[in-house]
Amino acid sequence: MDFGFTEEQRAAAEAARAVFSGTSPDGVPSPALSRGPAAEDFDRALWHRLARADLLSLYASPEHGGAGLGPLALCLVLREAGAVLARVPLLECGAAALTLRTHGGSAAARLLPPLGRGELVITTAAHGRTGHEPAERAVRALPSADGSGAWLLHGEQTAVPWGHTADRVLLPAHTDDGRALLALVRPAPGAHPGLTLEEQVSTNGERLARVRLDAVRVDGQEVITAEGAWDRLRALLTVGTCALALGIGTEVCRTTSEYTGRREQFGFPIATFQAVAVQAADRYIDLRAMEATLWQAAWRIESGAAESDGPACPLPADADIAVAKVWAAEGVRRIVQTAQHLHGGYGADISSPLHRYHAWAKQLELSLGPAAAHLEALGDLLAEQP
């Protein structure tokens, strides 16, 4: 059995690595040194370079101008993005594209081509009102009484990345009969009467938005009612978050190895000291566990196991996703904390790149649920097994 990546997947990772090779986190102010967000918008120049390299069209089907790749390719690209703290909505656009391709119907043909060309930016809302509740319960969707097929949305979604500058927000909502759906809304001023945006700033200093919806009317063609659409989007966002964490962990481990190899005490590199070597070895184990659980979860989603669990695999794919997020959350936190410790005083310098990696790691650790929440979900899944 071949456990390696396909040629197309490896090519996507190599292309992403080439585009990101000139990207550095040094040029963005530290959130601790900034009043408000570190920047008003994402890196548009980098976004256009990604589009020219065809990295934004990877997830659309060939008939929509894409390569037809799946979650594994998305995670490979996101790993490279995480390594350089790329300030672009790759996670949100990639997860939205894969969801639209599978469940979008006519919306896929309308939105995927411009998204792949970098002309359209779709972000996602996945945190609900507080970040500690099912996101789909935060917004209520009611069918319009005029029989036009439109929907009226009531509620709010918090911590929406790039919400102020994206062209669309793909957000979950629930109907009165308990079904979950996805709605595409335009955050531009005046596009939807009743929609307002409020400023928020994330742990890593990026600009977020609270999206409030007061009887916001959305045409039926902008609403995805297919069963499983929200579950797929949430799964993709979760494994994508794990991929970003893996990229951060990989880069932090690399830079820490380089630093401890050249930093000397008592005439010897500190990497030769047993206490340093043991800590570095523990973090290497964390990194390998993050990697193994991420690819297992991404493969389960890509292979369709989430919809077709059989006797050979009694646990649903949600279990693999929960395990991956537990390792990503705990692993990336331990990696950046150990890195700061081994860097000594330099590790506490808030103007250094390591400080920004720590801030991003903390953001990803808590995004879409901390380790404790996913351990609880995993326990519930295990308890349901005969």
TrEMBL record:
One of its GO terms (molecular function) is oxidoreductase activity. Residues 6-119 form the Acyl-CoA dehydrogenase/oxidase N-terminal domain. It is an enzyme of class 1 (oxidoreductase). Its cofactor is FAD. It holds the Pfam family Acyl-CoA_dh_1. Transmembrane segments: none annotated. InterPro entries: Acyl-CoA_Oxase/DH_mid-dom_sf (IPR046373), AcylCo_DH-like_C (IPR036250), AcylCo_DH/oxidase_C (IPR009075), AcylCoA_DH/ox_N (IPR013786), AcylCoA_DH/ox_N_sf (IPR037069), AcylCoA_DH/oxidase_NM_dom_sf (IPR009100). Residues 240-378 form the Acyl-CoA dehydrogenase/oxidase C-terminal domain. Its EC number is 1.-.-.-. Gene3D superfamilies: Acyl-CoA dehydrogenase/oxidase, N-terminal domain (1.10.540.10), Butyryl-CoA Dehydrogenase, subunit A, domain 2 (2.40.110.10), Butyryl-CoA Dehydrogenase, subunit A, domain 3 (1.20.140.10). Keywords: FAD, Flavoprotein, Oxidoreductase. It comes from the Bacteria. Belongs to the acyl-CoA dehydrogenase family. PANTHER family: ACYL-COA DEHYDROGENASE, ACYL-COA DEHYDROGENASE FADE28. This is Acyl-CoA dehydrogenase family protein. It comes from Streptomyces gamaensis.
